[in-house]
Design brief:
Number of domains of chain A: 1
CATH topology of the largest domain in chain B: Immunoglobulin-like
Shape of chain B: rod-shaped
Strand order of the largest sheet of chain B: 6-7-3-2-1-10
Order of helices and strands of chain A: HEHHEEH
Strand order of the largest sheet of chain A: 1-3-2
Radius of gyration of chain B: 38 Å
Number of helices of chain A: 4
Strand content of chain B: 25-35%
Largest sheet of chain B: 6 strands, antiparallel
CATH architecture of the largest domain in chain B: Sandwich
Helix content of chain B: 25-40%
CATH architecture of chain A: Orthogonal Bundle
Number of domains of chain B: 2
Oligomer: heterodimer
Number of helices of chain B: 5
CATH superfamily of chain A: Winged helix-like DNA-binding domain superfamily/Winged helix DNA-binding domain
Largest sheet of chain A: 3 strands, antiparallel
Structural class of chain B: alpha+beta
Chain lengths: 112, 238
């Protein structure tokens, strides 16, 4: 899938995941892969600048915790500000995809 | 686990991040990710080397990742935060230390006991128990003691409102003793401890047994008079 499209919605997907529970980076990637049937595959290293930026913006908080494997992981937790941001981006995304649908539908209609 | 290829990759990423204080955190987060990816691939049946390379390939270009991280880990923000925090810590220490030492010196003196101002035996004591508040300091005149060697001693305590901002002038009392003929001009001395809570003792030498009153002055004009002829508790009735 085109990188630009994923880029715009990465934050939304990450916020959506973190709404459910706290994740560490690798877990998030695995989960996004699983849910999207591996359509979303991006260079994994680029996830971290995005996460760190979200943390600077106050949407996330990170903490260190030992995972079940015994390894220490950096977990991310969504903040109240992040939850608000999620609602906002979700609405925008809905408006965006809805508009695209309308254009597609309208185009289809016009062509027939 | 330490794979040389990863080490080189992580170093390449970090070389792009100017703010050195965040290097450790980034290093471990990315290294953990590589290890997880690698283990995942090995479980899927890949060989060691293949899995190592595949894990690296998944991460993407080190320079790209590093530059993106550098934009978030801005040295300027990091430094401002660090400097502000240090200034704050310094500020707190500068303000708290003297207060603490004053408080402790004040409190320690609570447990200090009075020492008799004279070695000779007591003749009488008078329990005064008089409280006098002068501005932000309360004086408590506890006791008057009289010794066989004609020393008269006044024991008192003071406490000052620690939140008041007045100058803490060292306020020992002025003690003047009278007899029937008027003021007795004699020598003496005293001490006072503590800043917020303190005790003090004043003594006056060569006071005759028949001295009639003590006038204690606080600050500029407040005075109390203690009658020495009443309330004497004689030590030795014989």
């Amino acid at each position: 899938m085109d990188k630009g499209l994923i880029g715009g919605s990465t934050v939304l997907m990450l916020l959506s995941l973190l709404q459910e529970r706290d994740y560490y980076g690798y877990e998030m990637i695995k989960e996004i892969e699983r849910r999207s049937n591996s359509i979303f595959q991006f260079k994994e290293g680029t996830l971290y600048p995005v996460l760190h930026r979200m943390e600077v913006q106050g949407f996330l908080k990170s903490y260190k915790k030992k995972a079940e494997s015994g390894k220490e992981r950096k977990y991310y937790h969504i903040t109240a500000k992040g939850t608000t941001q999620f609602a906002k981006e979700k609405r925008q995304w809905g408006e965006f995809t809805g508009s695209v649908q309308k254009v597609l539908g309208g185009a289809g209609y016009a062509c027939t | 686990m330490l794979v040389p290829d990863w080490e080189a990759y992580l170093k390449a990423v970090l070389s792009e991040v100017q703010f050195k204080y965040d290097h450790n955190a980034i290093y471990f987060e990315l290294k953990n990710h590589l290890e997880d990816r690698y283990e995942g691939y090995v479980e899927e049946g890949m060989g060691d080397e293949e899995a190592t390379c595949a894990a690296l390939a998944c991460m993407g270009d080190a320079q790209t990742v590093g530059r993106a991280l550098n934009k978030v880990h801005l040295p300027i923000i990091g430094w401002i935060w660090r400097i502000l925090r240090n200034i704050l810590i310094l500020f707190i220490i500068i303000n708290i230390l003297p207060t603490l030492s004053l408080l402790t010196s004040g409190f320690v003196s609570v447990f200090e006991s009075y020492e008799n101002q004279s070695d000779s035996p007591l003749v009488y004591t008078i329990d005064v128990g008089h409280k006098e508040k002068v501005y932000d300091t309360t004086y408590f005149i506890d006791k008057i003691l009289y010794y066989e060697d004609h020393t008269l001693e006044v024991r008192y305590a003071t406490w000052t409102n620690p939140f008041s901002n007045s100058i803490r002038w060292n306020s020992s009392l002025s003690v003047v003793v009278y007899d029937e003929n008027g003021e007795i001009r004699i020598s003496g001395g005293g001490w006072k401890s503590g800043s917020f809570y303190g005790r003090g003792q004043e003594n006056r030498k060569q006071i005759p047994l028949n001295a009639t009153k003590v006038v204690i002055s606080f600050g500029l004009k407040e005075k109390i008079t203690i009658d020495l002829t009443e309330g004497r508790v004689m030590e030795n009735e014989s």
